[in-house]
Amino acid sequence: IDLETLFNNVNIQITTQEAASAAQEEIDQAINIVMSERANIGSIQERFNFAANNIQSSILNQQSALSVIRD
User: Fold this and answer.
1) What is the pLDDT of residue 43?
2) Apex CA 36: angle with CA 29 and CA 41, to 5°?
3) Residue 32 to residue 25: CA distance in whole angstroms
């Protein structure tokens, strides 16, 4: 199941035991997809945070070096 299927072909039936079990499996798959995507987004966000911190550190180092040169 992919995200397109998840959101475009929602057809959950709970009229019978078998249909309810199938619906539960579909819901579990949907939850797993969402959790996986959240993990991917969290990973990307962490990389952005690392890059931003690295840039900030570089700026501070350059400012410090410039201050030393001026003194």
Assistant:
1) 97
2) 145
3) 10
Give CA–CA dist 34/32, Å, rounded: 5
Please give the structure tokens belonging to residue 58: 């570089």
pTM, 2 dp: 0.64
Question: What is the C-alpha to C-alpha distance for residues 6 and 26, in angstroms, rounded to an integer?
Answer: 9
Q: Which residue has the tokens 């690295």?
A: 54
At 58, give phi and psi (nearest 5°).
-65, -40
On whether the CB atoms of residues 1 and 26 are closer than 8 A, the answer is yes
pLDDT score for 1:
52
Q: What is the tens place of the pLDDT at every residue in 10-53? A: 677 788 899 889 888 888 988 898 899 999 999 999 999 999 99
